[in-house]
Protein: MBL fold metallo-hydrolase
Organism: Ramlibacter lithotrophicus
Amino acid sequence: MALVFERVVTEGLGDLSYLIGDDSAGTAAVIDPQADVDVYLQLARRHKVAITHILQTHVHEDFLSGANELAARVGNATLCSSAEDAAPYGYAHEALRDGDCLAFGSTVLTARHTPGHTPEHMAFLVAEEGREQAPYAVFTGGSLLINAAGRTDLLGPDRAQALTAAQYRTLHDFYLKLDDGVIIHPTHAHGSPCGAAIGDRLSSTIGYERRFNPHLQCRSEEQFRRFALDGLPPKPSYYPRLKETNTVGPAVRHGLPVAPPLPAEEFARRMEEGGAVVVDTRHMLAFGGGHVKGALNIGMAAQLPIWAGWMLDPAQPLLLVVESDGALDEVLRLFLRTGFTRFAGYLVGGMTAWDNAGHDVVATAQVTAAQVHDRPGDFTLVDVRAPHEWASGHLPGARHVYLPELPARAGELPRGKPVVVYCDSGYRASIGTSVLQRAGVAEVANMPGSMQAWKRAGYPLEGQPAG
Amino acid sequence: MALVFERVVTEGLGDLSYLIGDDSAGTAAVIDPQADVDVYLQLARRHKVAITHILQTHVHEDFLSGANELAARVGNATLCSSAEDAAPYGYAHEALRDGDCLAFGSTVLTARHTPGHTPEHMAFLVAEEGREQAPYAVFTGGSLLINAAGRTDLLGPDRAQALTAAQYRTLHDFYLKLDDGVIIHPTHAHGSPCGAAIGDRLSSTIGYERRFNPHLQCRSEEQFRRFALDGLPPKPSYYPRLKETNTVGPAVRHGLPVAPPLPAEEFARRMEEGGAVVVDTRHMLAFGGGHVKGALNIGMAAQLPIWAGWMLDPAQPLLLVVESDGALDEVLRLFLRTGFTRFAGYLVGGMTAWDNAGHDVVATAQVTAAQVHDRPGDFTLVDVRAPHEWASGHLPGARHVYLPELPARAGELPRGKPVVVYCDSGYRASIGTSVLQRAGVAEVANMPGSMQAWKRAGYPLEGQPAG
């Protein structure tokens, strides 16, 4: 009998999902699958196990659940969802109760109701057969995280107080009573907006978190409440949409969304028809060198799903420009992760075909940190980072407009000087420059390297907290 | 700053290797790389880090080290080897001393001399910058393992006593003084012959092992000595060869070994020339259906490297038959792992081409557990499993010849009845049947499913330990 254990890291979203089972029994469970489910099927086949159960720790808001898609693709797996304090689900499932056990060969999972991040939240203790009283690990979903705990404000201010109190009890009455040697396998990890300052380790232990996790240092519920609800990152605008979709149960697609191939002439015609938005997924420098007029630049990178979520309406069809036609599947996979499935098509042959067809391209200027530093006062500097990043220090004379607010607030920017948009690396800034170009701002430049390059050069910051 | 952490599982050999680093600093280390190093290069590229250091916990005996190959393929990485009680190395390296620290962004590794499995053995503590006194994990190499400890008898009986005493001190004076919440990342894992009864979890913690690891339950050095040196699996015959190769430093190949393509006529001609051995890497049932006369059947599976190691001489060129030509690279990768790099060629087009060229094939009968059970006394039953497997119970009337001894002992088998070879699954048994066919034994059959099928059917066992 041998354990099967695989951790799937979905970078950008900062989520982890898992395959756990036993290749002698030939069975396994997937925990918190992402929407692009091929990876779980491939892992199951490599390990020669049947995925018999699909478990969700909670109703996710930060990604499109792959549970229903995976159940359909497997064909005979049981989809399990928490029945403790749960809103009614819109899909067929087996109800999980606190204390329910599932065995996969010699590995035993026990569901534990651990509310706080959400009301219905379930953790899964992992034990060896015969040692059920001494679990060696726990899948913590969105409850106890690395250096953090799942945020409790996502269901709105009305419910935040009760959920925060529940999270405090979950941490103290459940997690802190486990042995120090129990390994923590969270779903939400570094980079996830489902918690503040989540650490970058992929797993931890009760002992290490007991000692260092700031959420576990709070000695009273009141202290915890203040700490837990303070300094949270902005709640992504797409969270309520995904919460609703995941509660109802996402449509089964049997694969990636479809983006029909559009030769340059057709792509141009489809643009003229209106109703679709052009998203150019190339690197910011390629976008800067030349792009289709009106395109939004959301680069093909791990964080694409988050920024598509913030900046785009999933009801509006997308027209895609990709770095190379071979990258299309990867781009579709990234969009799918936050529920984007409507594509009017992609530009066949990419920008080369567009150029050869004789269509116009628009450039975006790129300015370096040194150029901005050496010409103080020459630019209107726009910082599009999140409020807590802005509060940790920014470029002298910059103004702050968080990127998701930029489309509505483009008109506020003073005219007369070229606008330079920056963020931490240039990725979000390039989205911002494309937003401003679409809004008709004449002179706009991106700042590749952004704050990282600024700091590396040792240039001064403004607005840094004291101490 | 974000941690990069990847665990590479080399199934069959039961070894784990690791990439750990920081994608903000852009640097990483690889720990105990296997010989097929592409996976580390791919992981480093995916995470956008430079492999700056290649660390080895000890001089390995169970696999061909990939450290030198990886150093050459990276181009500018530093290869670090323990200088504590180490035999002289035959390759350029940086000497590691107990207490040496290496930082990769905010991740700090500290080398700790932990002799026992080998004299020079190093573990690597892992800590977050600023918390060096509270490591959160430790790469344990071949010292503290999951549910086990690295065996101490590999350098021969002369050194076993001193190494066992050293291992006892390593476990008690180093590991048991760490916090319960420290995560253990071993190199030798489930299935590795470098320890007995290694557990199938991929990581563990000091706390869980303190409680359940039988090696940590021994309360005196004397008790530990008896426990540690008892019940060890047979020491693979290829271990001394790999120890020597890895001490000198394996030749850098810049990729997989070469197996020239041989059309059927050339393959047959090369066979007639002599000096080469035909290894058929197909599944036992395909081999049974028809194979080249004289072929040894070592199936393309995770355990191929171990059985190639036991059954073949790396100085003798191999002639390969593969399931499909597309599987050649995977087969070469498996052979490389225990140091097989001499290939006379492979049969282009596989057995289909052989058939079409009009060459003879030989079949091997396959008998089921039910057939053996229903015809008691009709067969000479040969159990080719390891001694400790035989001792846990075997088929009634069977005789035991451990597979590696079968070539020399084929003549001992009584004539007159068909010989049925079995193991646990049929994989080793099929190697055994091919050995006997090569030795000229007339009637030989394999038993697919072997002990697993026998037990599943509820048939009686003989020689089971009492209780």
Summary: The longest strand of chain A covers residues 3-10. Chain A touches chain B at residues 1-3, 5, 131, 134, 136, 179-183, 190-191, 200-212 (CB under 8 Å). Chain A has three domains: 3-248, 261-356, 365-456. The domain at 365-456 of chain A is CATH 3.40.250.10 (Oxidized Rhodanese; domain 1).
